[in-house]
Amino acid sequence: MSEPAPREANPKLFEALKGSRIRDENLNRLGKRLVYQVHILLKTSHIHLAGNAALAQPSERLVKTIEEILEWRGAANLRHEGDHLYLDDLRLKMDVEGYIGFAEVIGNFRRREIGSVRFSDEVSPQEVIEFAHLWATATASGADALQELLVERGVRHIALDPPVSHPPSVHPERVTQKAVAKRTYFRTITAVAEVMESAKLKQAIGVKKSKRVVQGLVDLMLQDEMTLLGLTTLRSHDEYTYSHCVNVCILALAIGQRLGYERSHLSDLGIAALFHDVGKAEIPLDILNKATDFTPEEWEIIRRHPILGVKSLLRLKGLDDISTKIVIAGFEHHLNYDLSGYPRLATPRKLTLFGRIISLADCYDAMTASRVYNRIPLAPDKALRLMLKKSGSAYDPLLMKVFVNCMGLYPVGTIVTFDTGERGVVIGAHPSPDRRGRPILKLIRDASGREIDGETIDLADPTLSPARRIVSTADAASMQIDLTRFFL
Ligand SMILES: [Fe+2]
Ligand SMILES: [Fe+2]
Q1: How far is the CA of 362 from the centre of ligand 1 (A)?
Q2: How far is CA 326 from each of CA 249, 315, 340, 416, rounded to the nearest angstrom?
Q3: Mean pLDDT per 10-residue run, the chain (488 residues)?
Q4: Are strands 316-317 and 205-206 parallel, antiparallel or unpaired?
Q5: Ligand 2 midpoint to CA 362 (Å)
Q6: Distance 364 CA to ligand 2 centre (A)
Q7: Strands 90-91 and 76-81
């Protein structure tokens, strides 16, 4: 056949489209397919031996995708960094449906201590099968060791590289980042207060300031998620509604980030989350701030807030095409995934992704706070476990998984007691999803119960001495522990 090899025909096209949206969209589509197919291949090879017919089709499909990628660029290099997968320098946008595949491929990379897999021109289905089989069965880990084994098996067109070093969980710049985070957090509270005030006065709601602060939160989220999530544990009891809105915004951004949302999309999600309870501006404060349980009549009033919110949000000014998304998300945030919530709908409809994300973030913050739907705050891990029981009914099950991966099984702010008698406060989740049950903590009480400004420990660190086991958890407020000093 005289058909030119794709790579000879396309460098020009590649150059011409460099940095263009078309190129990125195509590569993103192909990258997602690559991840899905690698996931299927690795999964199949765990069950079947190399040579088994079950691997033939997945390997051929994978090679076909690689060839398509190579038409766009010189190499198909799938790599991971932090919680993201990249096709070379392009961060792949993950959608909810692709989440499991992404998470498992990242998990596989981490377990094998591999940073990237490069498939080059002329890679064959047989080489891909050898690679998958080796990946599934080899006892060795690490790029060099596995590469050697690949060469032994005659694989010439797949190269492995070690991971790039990750930033340590607690890095020195955090001190200044913490100050920036704190400032942005409080500015956001002020912005929410202003929005609520306009809503209360039935004035047009300006969003310029909110947009600016949310962009600040997005930047922080991309740089230092841990500090920002720490701030959500701070509760202002006088300004409950405001801090709640900011917290829901931060939690929603954390989920959006895991889904690979790019900056502008994160910013839209953040605004929708920040405004989700705008309808509460019209609920009398004596009901909202009531210290005892709500009467049925008061519940009736509270349940109006999503609809009141829609009316307020229709008065938004300065917003473009994202206004609809914001209005709908506000309307949906108490509907629940299975529509069992409120307001009742005449015709069933599928909740938007923004609505589903915000509803998850909203419930988590409401459950861990000492106000609103429950009078007694729940320890963060207990709230998460309760929510997990309703995964698939009240909450989107895939988003629930994303949320647990983001928060860990002991979310930030949880007070834990160790078998040594010491106590600690969770300050961050371990970056690896396999270690969700082993958070990063700061010791706050010694074995005799004395308050200490203890060290930061990583429960996933095998060299940790003494090795500690969590025996119980509690909420900071019920233990009368002020979290301010750990997170501000
Ligand atoms: Fe609400
Ligand atoms: Fe809310």
Answers
A1: 7
A2: 12, 12, 21, 37
A3: 39 56 81 92 78 84 93 84 84 72 84 90 91 85 89 90 65 65 85 89 86 92 87 73 92 94 92 95 85 87 94 79 88 96 91 97 89 67 94 96 92 93 90 81 92 89 88 86 77
A4: parallel
A5: 5
A6: 10
A7: unpaired
- Between the CA of 339 and the centroid of ligand 1 the distance, in Å, is 15
Ligand 1 centroid vs 249 CA: distance in angstroms?
A: 13
Find the ligand nearest to 334 CA: 1
The CATH number of domain 174-407 is 1.10.3210.10: yes
Look at phi and psi of residue 154 and say left if phi exceeds 0, alpha if psi is from -120 to 50, else beta: left
Give 454-457 contacts, CB < 8 A, sequence gap 24+: 454/422, 454/424, 456/170, 456/427, 457/424
Q: For residue 283, give the ligand nearest its CA.
A: 1
Backbone torsions φ then ψ of 232, nearest 5 degrees: -70, -10
Tell which residue, 191, 218, 217, 219, has the closest CA to residue 205. Answer: 191
Q: Give every CB contact of residue 424 below 8 A, 6+ residues apart in sequence.
A: 415, 416, 418, 441, 442, 443, 444, 445, 454, 457
Q: Retrieve residue 141's tokens.
A: 């880990």
Residues 6+ apart with CB under 8 A from 299: none
Distance CA 8, CA 248 (A): 51
Using alpha carbons, list the distances in angstroms from residue 417 to 17, 368, 476. Answer: 56, 18, 12
Domains in the chain: boundaries: 6-161, 174-407, 415-487
Residue 405 C-alpha to ligand 1 middle, in angstroms?
24
Q: How far apart are the CA of 298 and the centre of ligand 1, in A?
A: 14
What's the pTM?
A: 0.71
Distance 365 CA to ligand 2 centre (A): 8
Ligand of minimum distance to the alpha carbon of 363: 2
Residue 482: burial class (beta carbons within 10 Å; 0-12, 13-18, 19+): exposed
Ligand 2 centroid–CA 371 distance in Å is 11
Distance in Å, CA 366 to ligand 2 centroid = 7
Rounded Cα distance, 148 and 155, in Å: 10
- Spatial neighbors of 465 by CB under 8 A, at least 6 apart, are none
By three-state DSSP, how is residue 470 classified?
A: strand
Q: Which residues are within 8 A (CB) of 241 and not within 5 positions of it... i.e. 6 or more apart? A: 192, 196, 277, 280, 288
CA 244 to ligand 1 center in whole angstroms: 10
Cβ neighbour number for residue 315 with a 10 Å cutoff: 13
- What was the pLDDT predicted at 4? 33
Task: For residues 290 and 277, give the distance between their C-alpha atoms in angstroms, rounded to a whole number.
Answer: 17
Structure tokens at 107: 């998990």
